[in-house]
Design brief:
By secondary structure, the chain is α+β, with helices and mostly antiparallel strands. It contains twelve helices and eleven strands.
Length: about 425
């Protein structure tokens, strides 16, 4: 006898090749989740390719799951942004399966990118986060708090103008802050969200969750993109929540020393446990990132370490040293040439006036002194100038010490750190 899971899988697979709501032809399954699946389909009226997201029968019998499914459609519709997945339609099949009609995205989610690459460069990470924040800017202004931001819900679309154009997906557990939609699908004491990216107030099921919880999640995502690991890690779901509520995240440079201090400070502020100490809006977070423009290599290269920073500083010094030596050499040559012509002129005069002029050896020292003495003194200084060969670098300045990690105080659930 087939299991419930096998029956559900068979039921969803049977949708391929069928026409839903009289106008959407289901072509193939492209994703499978815990409560349903996503299919590529085509609108038969206009030939446009779309994505159909279905709940399976088991989830469809769960009232709360259905409410969340509908909430996703409403939230995405209210928060209009190029960086939020578009939902065109919703309905149910003849057998009662709820579905959403969404734009078809081509690319990969951020989770897949991180699995493949481990970590991202600072410019790439900030570009992705900036787009996430633009989506949140629209969502928060529409009264929508996502509450489940994580790499899996950040989709990187492959487009002609941008290979990593961000689309935020899955508003299924979003909170609508408007009074007309006060039902947030959250019962008192129920924790909704994904542990690694959850804010302390969300982990404790505060009733007054606002957009700052999403900004904490963005900080956790940024931390993971730079460090290759979430900011709080523990063996169990509950242990992660406790760590988030009782421990400040370590400085991201603990895992990625190449991250500059300004970016590390940005991450630290986003991950403040006390929400009043975080960025207070997506706009403020975006402004902080914009302030870093010009200081970030746009080619994706690694940031310089302190030892490499000392090398460029030595080059101008070597250049000045070389220019100085060349000038001294030219001056010495000029003095020597002048002396040569003065001596020649003296010898010539001696030849033409043999009867009245003393021999060249008797030329008064005062005639040659203005020329010969500078040459002699400069020659004595030459060994000092050339004691360091032109090809060698000047002494390096000691590397500046790395900034120490700043750990700010936050919400404390215990009086002692474990």
């Amino acid at each position: 006898m087939p299991s419930l899971e096998q029956e559900t899988e068979s039921e969803l697979s049977a949708l391929v090749g069928t026409t839903v709501a009289g106008k959407y032809r289901v072509d193939r399954m492209i994703g499978r989740g815990g409560m349903g699946a996503v299919f590529q389909a085509a609108n038969l009226a206009i030939g446009k390719r779309v994505a159909l997201k279905f709940l399976d029968h088991e989830a469809a019998r769960n009232r709360e799951a259905c409410q969340r499914f509908q909430r996703e459609a409403e939230a995405a519709g209210m928060a209009e942004s190029a960086h939020i997945v578009q939902i065109f339609d919703s309905g149910a099949t003849d057998s009662g399966l709820p579905f959403l009609v969404m734009e078809l995205l081509t690319g990969e989610d951020l989770r897949a990118r991180l699995r493949r690459e481990g970590r991202l460069s600072v410019p790439s990470a900030l570009r992705i986060v900036s787009q996430v924040l633009r989506a949140l800017l629209c969502a928060h202004e529409a009264g929508i708090v996502h509450r489940d931001l994580k790499p899996d819900n950040v989709f990187l679309c492959a487009r002609d103008d941008d290979p990593s154009f961000v689309k935020i997906v899955d508003f299924g557990i979003s909170k609508v802050a408007r009074a007309r939609a006060a039902d947030t699908l959250t019962r008192r004491g129920t924790v909704l969200g994904t542990a690694f990216y959850m804010s302390p107030e969300q982990a404790q099921s505060f009733a007054d969750i606002d957009g700052r919880t999403d900004l904490f999640s963005v900080g956790a995502i940024l931390f993971e993109m730079l460090a290759g690991t979430p900011p709080h890690v523990a063996p169990t779901y509950e242990a992660v929540l406790i760590a988030i509520c009782t421990h400040d995240a370590v400085d991201v440079r603990t895992h990625a020393p190449e991250v500059p201090a300004a970016v590390a400070a940005l991450v630290t502020r986003a991950l403040q446990r006390e929400r009043d100490q975080r960025f207070q809006s997506a706009r403020e977070f975006l402004s902080a990132i914009a302030a870093l423009e010009g200081a970030i290599p746009q080619d994706g290269s690694a940031w310089a370490t302190p030892s490499s920073n000392s090398q460029p500083a030595a080059r101008p010094e070597r250049k000045r040293y070389g220019t100085w030596v060349a000038g001294i050499t030219a001056a010495l040559a000029g003095f020597a040439l002048t002396a040569y012509f003065v001596v020649r002129r003296g010898e010539s005069s001696a030849v033409s006036q043999e009867s009245t002029r003393p021999a060249p050896s008797a030329v008064p020292s005062a005639v040659l002194a203005p020329v010969v003495l500078p040459v002699t003194s400069a020659a004595r200084a030459a060994p000092t100038l050339s004691a360091r060969a032109p090809g060698t670098s000047s002494p390096r300045r000691p590397a500046a010490p790395k900034p120490s990690a700043r750990v700010a105080s936050g919400l404390q659930l215990s009086t002692k750190e474990p």
